[in-house]
């Protein structure tokens, strides 16, 4: 695990966070690591709002990736701002959130940290061969497996000074969510369904 965990006082404060700000957990990592599956389950367990970062991509970005062309920083800049602004809008309403975002580079994560929330990162980490195998069996997504190598090449893992945790994706989704909750010291909502 990397970064600072919540203190016991902060954990008791729940959504208020350390400074009365809502929390945001950004589930990050290369394509194919299971960001959407884990983020949706995490949001459900916590009772927080959820957003899928792919929905913020403009059509030009989707067309580029569908054609097997990696996005560059210029492509990603407005996309990251839209995600940051969504986090900020929900935080302004007092809502904590979970959002997926590859957030491969630290400077991308810095953009998201600009939201008025306690933005934390859950890095889903896995061996390239495992992730490639999962992508080969995934249907209905525009990201081709041919772009996976470029994503791993661009990946800058969470630094020790970044607020968040790293969880291996070799486990089942339920186990990953349980490990994430423990690593981030987050308490499921009272009404949340227990994982099997």
Describe the protein.
The chain has 196 residues and is of the alpha/beta class. It is 41% helix and 13% strand. It has eight helices and five strands, in the order H-E-H-E-H-H-E-H-E-H-H-E-H. The protein has helices at residues 8-13, 35-46, 59-66, 73-92, 106-112, 128-136, 148-154, 173-183, and strands at residues 23-28, 49-51, 97-100, 118-125, 164-168. It has a five-stranded parallel beta sheet, sandwiched between helices. Helix 2 crosses helix 8. The longest helix has 20 residues, at 73-92. Residues 1-16 have low confidence and may be disordered.
Please render the helix and strand layout as text.
Blueprint: H1 8-13, E1 23-28, H2 35-46, E2 49-51, H3 59-66, H4 73-92, E3 97-100, H5 106-112, E4 118-125, H6 128-136, H7 148-154, E5 164-168, H8 173-183
Parallel strand pairs: 1-3, 1-4, 2-3, 4-5
Helix pairs in contact: 2-8
Summarize the structure.
The protein contains 8 helices and 5 strands. With 196 residues, it is α/β, with parallel strands linked by helices. It has a 5-stranded parallel β-sheet with strand order 2-3-1-4-5, sandwiched between helices.
- Strand ordering within the main sheet: 2-3-1-4-5
Shape: globular
Structural class designation: alpha/beta
Main β-sheet description? 5 strands, parallel
Helix percentage = 40-55%
Runs in which pLDDT lies below 50 for 5 or more consecutive residues are 1-16
Question: Which strand-content bin applies to the residues?
Answer: 5-15%
Q: Determine the N-to-C terminus distance.
A: 24 Å
H/E element order = HEHEHHEHEHHEH
Mean pLDDT rating = 83
Number of helices: 8
**Number of DSSP strands?**
5
What Rg is obtained from the alpha carbons, in whole angstroms?
16 Å
């Amino acid at each position: 695990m990397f970064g600072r965990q919540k203190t016991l006082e902060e954990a008791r404060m729940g959504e208020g966070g350390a400074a009365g700000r809502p929390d945001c957990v950004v589930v990050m990592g290369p394509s194919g690591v299971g960001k959407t599956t884990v983020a949706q389950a995490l949001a459900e367990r916590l009772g927080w709002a959820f957003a899928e970062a792919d929905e913020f991509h403009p059509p030009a970005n989707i067309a580029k990736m569908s054609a097997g062309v990696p996005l560059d920083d210029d492509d990603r800049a407005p996309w990251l701002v839209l995600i940051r602004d969504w986090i900020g809008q929900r935080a302004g309403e007092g809502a904590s959130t979970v959002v997926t975002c590859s957030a491969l580079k630290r400077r991308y994560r810095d953009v998201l940290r600009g939201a008025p929330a306690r933005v934390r990162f859950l890095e889903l980490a896995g061996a390239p061969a495992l992730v490639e195998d999962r992508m080969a069996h995934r249907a209905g997504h525009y990201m081709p497996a041919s772009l996976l190598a470029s994503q791993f090449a661009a990946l800058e893992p969470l630094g020790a000074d970044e607020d968040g945790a790293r969880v291996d994706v070799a486990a089942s989704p339920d186990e990953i969510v349980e490990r994430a909750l423990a690593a981030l010291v987050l308490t499921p909502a009272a009404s949340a369904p227990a994982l099997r």
